[in-house]
Design goal:
By secondary structure, the chain is an alpha/beta fold. Among the domains are: 1-50, lambda repressor-like DNA-binding domains (434 Repressor (Amino-terminal Domain), Orthogonal Bundle); 164-294, 3-Layer(aba) Sandwich (Rossmann fold). It is built from twelve helices and twelve strands. It has helices spanning 9-16, 20-27, 35-47, 53-60, 77-92, 106-116, 133-139, 164-177, 193-208, 225-237, 250-262, 296-312; strands spanning 66-71, 96-101, 122-125, 145-147, 158-162, 182-187, 215-220, 244-247, 272-274, 291-293, 321-325, 328-330. Strand 3 (122-125), helix 7 and strand 4 (145-147) form a beta-alpha-beta unit. Helix 8 runs parallel beside helix 9 (193-208).
Length: 339
């Protein structure tokens, strides 16, 4: 945008010091403009939040019968369940799903949006990091868009999100009530807004129940089994001996659980472990994993329903609001009752 207005091809040309024709060639994929010049023009276009007019025209008449999902990554059970649930709902409506993974990168997010805008009828974006709101102004005015993470407190977008804070708070409180007074928390990257909310929920429960806790310690882990395993090794080598480990998600918890079982630590008799998400594997382990059911399917189904509501009622595209998906603790065998 320039001075609060949508950028044009003329703004890009002026900023790049080239002709309008040269800019047009770049976005039309012409072999006449390549290398540093093409990269410079694309970079300036991204900075100005410019989208080629051909895409905008395509959107106004788009009937591709395709829904796009932009995800931070596509590996792991959480995203597998999300994709499966979304695709099932989309296919019921005789549409198809296209997926783009942006590897937690803002630059890749921009590229994915640019690529998909003219190809899909609606877009769900799961990007649990802070997003430049300039992107939104250009994106949401043109097409149905749903965001699957609570990236802003402003009423400028349609957001559907799991209640990560409350789910984590309730789980931690339940575990404290089960008699656990020495608690370790394996947190994920705090730049990730979902991980941040889960950690905040844990801390709120700790603060609200401080008289029932002897000691707690925070460990920087991650959302993967490898991170859980590595962090479990760090904890085992230290002097702090918790009765329970609460992990940022199930994958991390599974990694920790396997580490301790391989090192002859009995779960839950000697050490309890809990996760978050309630992925399918959580109920197939022995012992079954205590976790938080974040209603992954409900997140996907609600997102698809909202997108089709906007497709059939275009006046809703400019609306904004937030839908919070309930998250509740699921108590299983991996956490021992101590009182």
């Amino acid at each position: 945008m320039v001075n609060g207005k949508n950028s044009t091809i003329y703004d890009v040309a002026a900023a790049a010091g080239v002709s309008v024709a040269t800019v047009s060639r770049v976005f039309n994929g012409s072999p006449l403009v390549t290398g540093k010049t093409a990269e410079k023009i694309k970079k300036i276009a991204a900075e100005l939040d410019y989208y080629p007019n051909s895409n905008a025209r395509g959107l106004s008449v788009s009937k591709n019968e395709i829904i796009g999902f932009i995800l931070p990554v596509v590996y792991g059970e959480f995203f597998s369940e999300l994709i499966y649930s979304a695709e099932t709902e989309i296919q019921k409506r005789k549409y198809h799903l296209i997926i783009s993974s942006v590897h937690d990168s803002v630059d890749e997010l921009r590229d994915a949006i640019r690529s998909l805008r003219s190809k899909v009828d609606a877009l769900a974006i799961f990007f649990p990091y802070k997003i430049d709101e300039k992107i939104l102004g250009r994106l949401t005015e043109k097409m149905p868009v749903i965001f699957l993470s609570d990236f802003t407190k402003k009423k400028i977008a349609n957001i559907i999100t799991i209640d990560n804070f409350e789910g984590s708070r309730k789980l931690t409180e339940q575990i404290i009530r089960m008699g656990h007074r020495r608690i370790a928390y394996f947190r994920a990257d705090q730049k990730n807004l979902d991980a941040c909310d889960r950690f905040k929920g844990f801390m709120r429960a700790v603060e609200d129940n401080s008289s029932d806790i002897d000691e707690y310690k925070i460990y920087d882990a991650g959302f993967t089994r490898a991170a859980g395993r590595a962090t479990a090794s760090v904890l085992a080598a230290g002097s702090f001996k918790p009765s329970v480990i609460i992990c940022a998600n199930d994958a991390c918890a599974i990694g920790a659980l396997r580490y301790f079982r391989e090192n002859n630590v009995s779960v839950p008799d000697e050490l309890s472990i809990a996760g978050f998400d309630d992925i399918e594997t959580a109920s197939l382990l022995y012992p079954q994993l205590t976790t938080v059911n974040g209603n992954i399917r409900s997140l996907a189904v609600t997102a698809v329903e909202h997108l089709f509501n906007m497709i059939t009622s275009p006046e809703k595209i400019k609306s904004s609001g937030k839908t919070v998906i309930h998250a509740a603790p699921v108590l299983r065998g991996s956490v021992k009752i101590l009182n």
